[in-house]
Amino acid sequence: MTFRVPLVARLGVLVVATTLFYTYVGQMVPQKQVLPPVEIEIRKDIGTAEMVSLGREIADGKGLCFTCHTIGKKGALRFPDLEGVASRARTREPGLSEVEYLAHSMYEPDAYIVQGFNPGMPVINKPPIGLTDDEILCVIAYLQTLGGTPTVTLQTKHRWNAGAPGGGAAAAGGAPAAPVAAGTAPVGGAKP
Amino acid sequence: MRSPRARIALALLAGVLALAALGRIVAWLVSNEYRMPERVTEGRADETPRARGLADEKAADEKKAMETPYQEPEYRRFPVIGSRTAVWVAAQLHLLFAAFVLAVPLFAFIIEAIGWKTGDKRYDRLAYEFTRLMSVSFSLTATFGAALTFLLIILYPKFTTYLMDVFSPTFLPYVLLFFFEAFFLYTYYYGWGKFHPLVHLGLGLGLNVVGTCIMVIANAWLTFMTSPAGVSEKGAVISVWAAVHNYTWMPINIHRFIANIAFGGSVAAAYAAFKFLQATSDEERAHYDWMGYIGNFVAIAGFLPLPFAGYWLAKEIYAFSQTLGLTMMGGAFSWLFIIQAVLIGNLFLAVNYYLWLGMGRIEGAQHFQRLIKYLLIGIAVCFMIWATPRSIIATVSEVRAMGGSAHPMLGYLGVMSAKNTAVNILILTTFMSFLLYRRTGKVATVAWKRAGNIAQLAIFGLASANVIFLGIYGYFVEATVRIGLSVPQVLSVLIAMVSITVIDIFLFRGARMDAEVRWGRIPAIAQYVLIFIAVTFTWLMGLMGYVRSGLRQHWHVYGVMRDRSVDAYTPTLGDATIIVSWTVIVFFLLIGFVFWLASLHDKKDWEAGARPGEAAP
Which residues of chain A are within 8 Å of residue B576 when distances are taken between CB atoms? Predict the structure, then answer.
């Protein structure tokens, strides 16, 4: 007398084995749990060096910068690589200082598109990213370290954080920039 | 009363009754004894400081409770598994049954229409058999839908209130449509053979139209969560229609419509496989083999255009937000698409294997069977390219040796140019495999048959060459150009499939049959393949449902309403696949129950007195 496994049991084994196989494949890929971005408290008295460190943290976390941007990668990229961005920022848009250009690219990202790339960067001070003005200044401080020297402070004003139109607050000279009074000559204007 | 056992039992009963009577008398006496009257003093004798303190506390609590205004909690917590998982499982099970309930009427209607047009009763029987699976599934869909709604209201009250506020004008039509769905479904099912065929087909059409409308409304709610529109930055409603007609609404409508057909076909084929394996006669085997073939055909027909609908959906996600698109393809979820590649690759292999096994039913199919072998090799190569990741998990020393996380050679296969090419060739090859199966045993009789065959081969060759050329070209151009290359790749495959099919229909019109299809003459392994396809499809739906929803990460409504609950994290892919697997197993337990219920229809009625296995008189 031969024992035959009941059909229901055979089918059950097939369903469970197939499911287990796919579960196993799921365990083989890199595992990363993504937590909601941590709100970083920015004290008003911090200096530029601390801002750089916080800026790096924000760029990596809440700012989601490295979802799209790379540092030091060459080849066919979908978004500009950030290596040496500070040095390029000084001359990229006529009339805009390094800080102004970096701020412009975050507050109005579609106003100037780097050649060879498509528009796609979100407005950084609006949801879903929604960085505050101070957080953006910290990110600018960090970006200035990529090919330059950080100069911004939390007191730095530019046209997008209620500073003067055209700003120029973050003097490219290196000394911490003082807030600039409204009425400074506008720089930039309409962009391509 | 001579039996000693009966006497003992009677004595025991009398003893119990006597004890009960005694207890009753004692209780009466105790309750009626004389007691000294209690005199309560003005300050109550038992009011100790502790009792006073407790009374004061109670009064203070009551007062506080009375004064506290009602405040809706933002979240509640589901025990053990957490709110996120609870909603996830309920939503997934609801969607799986809903997909089945929406898809089956669609092909039941088409099969019934073919039966009516051709006069072939087999089609009518087949359509009815498909429909039989639906009534229980419909109840399960509604049950899981209700469970999902209650879970959302209980666990995420604020978010649910917001969603209801935005979409309030859509809920009444939804409920009405649900009522009509029940009306059409049960009239269609119970009215089988009771009405004029055209009236019955009209009921089937009504069922499909209403079902599709229900899906389209529900899709508006869930796509709004991913790509909100029609609301201000702070979430205030500006336009309900804009909220409905958001970026991903139409792509999801199309994608789900096609995916439901593929999924429904595969589950119906699994049912046929189950019945085939249970069958005891050749006639039954022939019927269920044919049913499995039709179910699988429906699944393939839905499956082949599905990646194109997927492209469109992905494109709209990018158009809505590049960040969201990149989170999907290049961020936390990028490795999920490697798992997807394994699943889809398995589906393609299994579908082609089934077709290859199916050729055994037809005499004189050896010539085509030899060709299928080469197609399978092509499919396996494409599968391997598609499943090659860009970055390889490696140790630090291995990464140094490779000069980066991408392998110096295999890394080139991990980019979109290679993957798009592989998936397009995969689709084209499976299509050709199906075409070969379709023409097995037939001989074209038209005068232009040679030219027709050459034209078909030329189209296939040109489309393949174009897809491969564009894939290679993509390595040498900027990202902006490369992204656009997927469109002509997809178009060439679509044009090839449509034009080859059209030629084939005319080529084999009035064809001579030189071999008979021997339904039922197929190895049993083919039935297990059909069940494997259904499980893989279900798992794939679970996985892609997760990415569609999980993509929002810590947002209930992306960029508008943030998830601040403890469940606002995005689980690892490993954890996600475990939940998907549990959902799939629960679904198959339930669908097994549906199959069993449907099979009761064929069983003989039970009658008292009939022994098991013995037919009732």
Answer: 26
Residues B180 and B244 in one domain: yes
Residue A84 lies in a domain: yes
Within a domain: A11: no
From CA B203, how far away is CA B213, in angstroms rounded? Answer: 15
H/E element, B513:
strand B512-513
The CA-to-CA distance between both ends of chain B, in Å, stands at 43
B476 and B377, same domain (yes or no)? yes
Specify whether B524 is located in the same domain as B465.
no
Contacting residues for B267 by C-beta, under 8 A, at least 6 apart:
B100, B295, B534, B537, B538, B591
The answer to whether residue B151 sits within a structural domain is yes
- The answer, yes or no, to whether ipTM is higher than 0.90 is no
Q: For chain B, positions 336-365, list CB contacts with chain A under 8 A.
A: 336, 338-339, 342-343
- pLDDT score of A181: 33
* Statement: residue B589 has pLDDT above 90: yes
Which residue carries 């209930």 as its tokens?
A: B556
Question: Residue B426: inside a domain, yes or no?
Answer: yes
CA torsion, ordered B520, B522, B527, B529, to nearest 10 deg: -150
Where in the sequence is the domain holding B502, given as residue range(s)?
A: 366-439+442-514
Q: Is position A52 within any domain?
A: yes
Query: What are the tens digits of pLDDT across the range A110-140?
Result: 888 888 888 888 899 988 898 999 999 999 9
Cβ pair B141, B103 in contact under 8 A = no
**Taking the model in full, what pTM does it have?**
0.81
Place of tokens 């060739």: B425
B340 and B452 co-located in one domain: no
Q: Which amino acid is at A24?
A: Y
Q: Which residues form the domain of A122?
A: 48-144
> B349-396, pLDDT tens digit by residue?
899 889 888 888 887 777 777 777 788 888 888 888 888 876 655 566
Min distance B565 CA to chain A CA atoms (Å): 10
Test B569 with A116 for CB contact under 8 angstroms: no
Q: Are residues B481 and B506 in the same domain?
A: yes
Give yes or no: residues B108 and B130 share one domain: yes
The residues of chain A scoring below 50 in pLDDT are: 166-192
Minimal-distance CA residue of chain B relative to A67: B331
Chain A hits for B575, CB-CB cut-off 8 Å, are: 33
Interface contacts (A, B; CB < 8 Å): 133
Strand pairing category for B512-513 and B442-443: antiparallel
Cα–Cα distance between B366 and B351 in angstroms, integer? 19
Q: How many domains does chain A have?
A: 1
